[in-house]
Amino acid sequence: MDTQQNTALTRALAEVPGPLPTSGVIHITLPHTDRFTVVGNHLAQHPELSCTAVGIAVRIQSLPQGTEVSIKALTARCKEGEKRIAAALRELEAHGYLQRFRHRLPGKKVATRTLFCNQPAALVRLRGQTPAPVPVPAQPQAHAPESDSYSDVEPVPEPEQQPERQPKPEPKPEPAPLPPAPPVPAVLLPVASPPSPPPPPFVPPPTAPKPPRPPLPQPGALTPALDRAATALLSDLRRHAPQFTLSEGDIRQLVPPVATWLERDAHPDTIRRTLIDDLPQPLRHPVKLLKHRLTALLPPPLPGACDLAAPARPRTVATPFQTCDDCDRAFRSPAPGHCRDCRETREHRGEDVPAAA
Q: Distance (Å, rounded) from C-alpha 354 to C-alpha 324?
């Protein structure tokens, strides 16, 4: 009586469309209208990030712009300690979700700025597709006004006239030095590089080859009676489960393993329940499921009557009791004679003692 029942969840579970899974989590999905954050599965199901790092990333992504996300600020917001939060931030920084850099402020002050990207893989691809920036030409230096002539060669005088003495050109004034350019802030995004291949998938491809499937069970002798019974059982499955409407070719493949079950004294109702109970939803390959269950759930042969009998215990032969000829004392011996004390007494007296059995 002390267990609280959530009737709202119970009613919502009854309204979930489609068949419910037999195991695992059951999702009740309601659309958000306010106060929600979109999180990609590449972060929520990242195979190399810890659950603490994923939770810290979701917390940072849900905060508005300009919110303080230092280690001490996150410690005040979360239940984790500074060490766990610092380790989670290092994980996010190693996988490209987080970037921290130092920004110099006026007055020789330095502040740490934090960047958070919700899709680092997409950002890398976007930077790889962006064309390289065109270099800006340098500003032209100040120079003297150009003359009417476009050539620096003096004109050649005619032979009848003497060339007039040209005045010496005045030295050109040196250009005034340009003011120093303002400092360029540090680039926050990765430096553009040649187009790189797409990032590898988070889930690596399987390296080990799949083991071969075990062969279907075969009976010792496929008699006509076993063949008829197995064929009838397989043809009758569609009455109990319409998904198992098998073709004649499929039935001929499944007859030997079913005959093996019948040969091992399995009841037809037991075989039918084993094959059609607790089906996966949706069922895409009925024949493959039947082959798997007939092979993996094959019972062993029934033991014989001699195998069920308890093993006979070995008989122990007890040495019989004898009565001593001198003192009438009872003692154990395979043959009559004297007891140990009487034999020792006779030996002490020097009398003949018969050999002990």
A: 12
Which tens digit of pLDDT belongs to each residue from 134-152?
455 444 444 444 444 333 4
Query: Rounded distance, CA 255 to CA 223, Å?
Result: 11
Q: Report pLDDT digits (tens) over 77-113.
A: 888 899 999 999 999 999 889 988 888 888 878 888 8
- Give the global pTM: 0.35
Which is nearest to 96 in space by CA: 83, 115, 75, 113? 115
Instruction: Show the domains of the chain with their CATH numbers.
Output: 37-129 (1.10.10.10), 224-300 (no CATH)
Long-range contacts for 289-293 (Cβ within 8 Å, ≥24 apart)? 290/244, 290/254, 291/216, 291/253, 291/254, 291/257
CB atoms within 10 A of CB 206: 7
Closest CA to 92 of 122, 128, 52: 52
